[in-house]
Specification:
It catalyses: L-threonyl-[protein] + ATP = O-phospho-L-threonyl-[protein] + ADP + H(+); L-seryl-[protein] + ATP = O-phospho-L-seryl-[protein] + ADP + H(+). Its EC number is 2.7.11.1. It comes from Paenalcaligenes hermetiae. The protein is an alpha+beta fold. The protein has one domain. Helices cover about 60% and strands about 10% of the residues. The longest helix has 22 residues. It is globular. It binds adenosine-5'-diphosphate and magnesium ion.
């Protein structure tokens, strides 16, 4: 049996719910549906924790998609339709979970799929919370970057690669939240470069803008992935961000010190230094 078919078979067996669990969970989900719950909910049954994620259409999503499309155009000089970037339905998320798991990426097992919700494996604590408690946990930071490297080496993309969409269970990192459609809306290298941007930008606050550490982590990504197209796109972003930095004094003091600008400046600095170090190594 081929590797892929074996993974699919193992997935299928591991992802099957017993009928009694299924009925018990469905009964507990019904009132949540009636109450129109939006946020994912954790349910415990028979000593097992499950996460229920509901179908939803957040107000303001289209605005966010237009903003993402604009940012991609600014940074990468590539046009991507905001309509293609539209966050997918819950069926889209279920499909992504199945595909990624079959590709060997650590994502939650999918137990139930309906038009209104999905039920998946509870994959532990949010990495965002863990980092807030221990911001300089080098092992954790390296594991985060290693997980991005592995994802990209498998020719995959996340879409929502910020650390808030990672969880940790039994010292293993899981990727969650696959509503975004970036990888279907743009070439793979661009979706991966966008993942790099989101991941490292989201690390900024946690490592207190420690540049040496950021450079070390980003360099690790560049050296281990060796993807010329992603690198080329990141060089474009670097050029753009360096030009943008020169305009910063034109902004008011308050804006200059806003969280978003500080994060972007941090990313600009570590990207520039990592690319330089990578080119000379
Ligand atoms: N499978 C899971 N295991 C553990 N926690 C989860 C899981 N799925 C979601 N969560 C928790 O719920 C939060 C929101 O879920 P997410 O899928 O990221 O939805 P949103 O689109 O609201 O960001 C996550 O940040 C995480 O803390
Ligand atoms: Mg999320």
């Amino acid at each position: 049996m081929g590797d892929n078919r074996l993974i699919k078979l193992v997935n299928f067996i591991m992802s099957s719910l017993s009928p009694s669990h299924r009925i018990a969970l469905e009964q507990r989900i019904q009132p949540l549906l009636q109450a129109q719950r939006q946020e994912p909910v954790v349910l415990h049954h028979d000593n097992t924790a499950y996460v229920v994620k509901f179908a939803r259409r957040e107000a303001g999503r289209l605005w966010r998609e237009h903003l993402s499309s604009f940012i991609i155009w600014l940074l990468f000089q590539q046009r991507v339709s905001p309509y293609q970037l539209r966050a997918g339905s819950i069926a889209h998320e279920a499909q992504r979970l199945r595909q990624l798991r079959a590709a060997g990426i650590t994502v939650p097992a999918l137990y139930l799929e309906t038009p209104d919700y999905i039920v998946m494996e509870h994959c532990g604590e949010s990495v965002e919370y863990r980092l807030r408690r221990t911001p300089y946990d080098r092992d954790l930071l390296q594991a985060i970057v290693q997980s991005l490297i592995q994802l990209h080496k498998q020719q995959q993309w996340h879409g929502g690669a910020q650390v808030r969409n990672l969880t940790i269970k039994n010292q293993r990192l899981y990727r969650i939240d696959f509503e975004e459609n970036t990888g279907n809306a743009m070439p793979l290298a661009l979706a991966q470069a966008y993942d790099v941007l989101l991941c490292f930008n989201s690390l900024a606050t946690h490592i207190q803008q420690n540049q040496t550490l950021g450079v070390e982590l980003l360099q690790r990504y560049l050296q281990q992935t060796q993807q010329p197209e992603v690198r080329h796109l990141l060089i474009k972003v670097d050029r753009y961000l360096q030009r943008l930095q020169r305009l910063l004094p034109l902004l008011g003091k308050k804006l200059q010190h806003s969280k978003d600008i500080r994060q972007t400046r941090y990313f600009a600095a570590i990207l520039h230094q990592s690319l330089q170090a990578d080119a000379s190594s």
